[in-house]
Amino acid sequence: MKRTGLLTAILLMASLFPVMAQTQGPKTKVIAHRGAWKNTGAPQNSIASLQEAIKLGCFGSEFDVHLSADSVLVLSHDHVIQGVDIEKATAAQLAAVKLSNGESLPTLEAFLKEGLKQSKTRLVLEIKASKVSKERSLALTTKAVQMVKALKGQALVDYISFDYDVCKRVKALDPSAKVAYLNGEKSPEQLAEDGLYGLDYHQSVLKKNENWIKEAQQKNLTVNTWTINQREMMDWMLERNVDFITTDEPEQLLNILKSGR
Ligand code: MG
Questions:
Q1: How many CB atoms lie within 10 A of CB 107?
Q2: What does the pLDDT look like over 16-64, one tens digit per residue?
Q3: CA torsion through residues 121, 63, 51, 49, sign
Q4: Which residues have a beta carbon within 5 Å of ligand 1, which is an ion?
Q5: pLDDT at residue 171 greater than cutoff 70
Q6: Any residues with CB less than 8 A from the CB of 247 and at least 6 apart, and which?
Q7: How far apart are CA 110 and CA 237, in angstroms?
Q8: E strands in 110-230
Q9: 81 φ, ψ to 5°?
Q10: Looking at the domain that runs over 26-258, which CATH code has it been given?
């Protein structure tokens, strides 16, 4: 009887191990950089690229936000799109800009409304610093946070910026907001002191300061890195258990993670 009991216990444990290995899974999560555009044909920073990132099951989809001359928030990576300088253009002029798939240049409002129809893919909102003035960067920040609140999107929207004053302004406006800094020169200690959610640094910064990865995580900061499109660098980051990888190749990274490496 005793032996049977022991055997049963061993068999039970053996059968549980693969389940445990599966449920533990890889920790790193995929953020689509400017949406999922490269392999889908959707334009960067379009509503279509967000829909593709959601369809893929990305943990997050990143996008860039600027402020028009008449204070409307719109999506674009560059300050000038199709010859139109966003900060000097009106919302009406910007609405006339058509992306390659026929979409109008998205407003933040339209984009968030689409993104908030679901709750699985996080919306990673990059606040682009103004080329005109710090005041405009901060005005953009206030408007963006207000819009997220008005649309009840706080639980799904994260913020990132190269401008540290912008990061701190987001925290002042919404203390519960998850804010990560992009520029790379601040230590994890400094970011933790200022109550940030994490660092989101270029791969070269993390290669040079490898110890920052662990240091940040020990301080309960998340570690994100960009823009990782090569397998070798994906592996380097995965081996170091970064929290997020921002990539133009979300399909490839998702497949690597699914295969369990
Ligand atoms: Mg960006």
A1: 19
A2: 544 444 344 459 999 999 999 999 999 999 999 999 999 999 999 999 9
A3: negative
A4: 64, 126
A5: yes
A6: 30, 31, 32, 33, 226, 227, 228, 229, 234, 253
A7: 34
A8: 122-127, 157-161, 178-181, 198-202, 222-226
A9: -125, 125
A10: 3.20.20.190
Cα 33 to ligand 1 centre (Å): 7
- Domain residues of the chain, as ranges? 26-258
Distance from Cα 35 to the centre of ligand 1, integer Å: 10
Distance of CA 256 from the midpoint of ligand 1 (Å) = 23
Q: Which residue shows structure tokens 């449920």? A: 23
Buried b (16+ CB within 10 A) or exposed e, 213-222: bebbbeeebb
Going by DSSP bridges, is the β-strand pair 73-75/84-85 parallel, antiparallel, or unpaired?
Answer: unpaired
Q: Which amino acid is at 201?
A: Y
What distance in Å separates the CA atoms of residue 190 and residue 46, rounded to the nearest whole number? 34
How many Å lie between the centroid of ligand 1 and the Cα of residue 78?
Answer: 9
Please tell me the distance between residue 62's alpha carbon and the centre of ligand 1 in angstroms.
6
Residue 77 Cα, ligand 1 centroid: separation in angstroms?
6
How sure is the predictor about 252, in pLDDT bands with cuts at 50, 70 and 90? very high
Choose between 105 and 8: higher pLDDT.
105
How far is the C-alpha of 243 from the C-alpha of 7, rounded, in Å? 40
Amino acid residing at 18 = P
Q: How far is the CA of 11 from the centre of ligand 1 (A)?
A: 51
Spatial distance between the Cα atoms of 251 and 57, rounded to a whole number of angstroms: 10
Q: How far does the centroid of ligand 1 lie from the alpha carbon of residue 126, in Å? A: 6
Residue 184 Cα to ligand 1 middle (Å): 14
3-state SS of 56-81 is HCCCEEEEEEEECCCCCEEECCCCEE
Query: What is the distance between the alpha carbons of residues 32 and 124, in angstroms, rounded to a whole number?
Result: 9
CA distance 4 to 231: 49
CA of 64 to the centre of ligand 1 (A): 5
